[in-house]
Amino acid sequence: MRTVNIHEAKTHLSRLIEGAMKGESFIIAKAGRPMVRVSPILSSEEPQQRRLGFLAGRIQVPEDFDCMGQEDIMSLFDGST
Predict the structure, then answer these.
(1) Cα dist from 72 to 27, 77, 80, whole Å
(2) What is the per-residue pLDDT for 79?
């Protein structure tokens, strides 16, 4: 694995990243001491897309869902407790 110093890495970062994407990982060193290893992220999986209705049949929504807690909310606005 190739080792480059920080100055070279800053100067040629684009070129080094292109090489890493082709499988040529490298190490960045400071004063000859290895600091980090740069390698490509190999992800052949595409992120799963969210799909509507994926919980259909698993949960139940109450019939009064759209007016649940209506009395409590109204009392908060009216100032009555």
Answers:
(1) 62, 9, 10
(2) 76
- pLDDT per position as a tens digit, 16-25: 999 999 989 9
What distance in Å separates the CA atoms of residue 7 and residue 37, rounded to the nearest whole number?
Answer: 15
Indicate whether 70 belongs to any domain.
Answer: no
Q: Count of CB atoms within 10 A of residue 8's CB?
A: 14
Which residue range(s) make up the domain with 12? 2-38
Tell me the pTM: 0.51
Domains identified in the chain, total number = 1
φ, ψ of residue 77 to 5 degrees: the values are: -80, -35
d(CA 72, CA 63): 18
| All residues at 6 or more sequence positions from 12 whose CB lies less than 8 Å from its CB, including other chains | 4
Q: Which two tokens stand for residue 73?
A: 């909310």
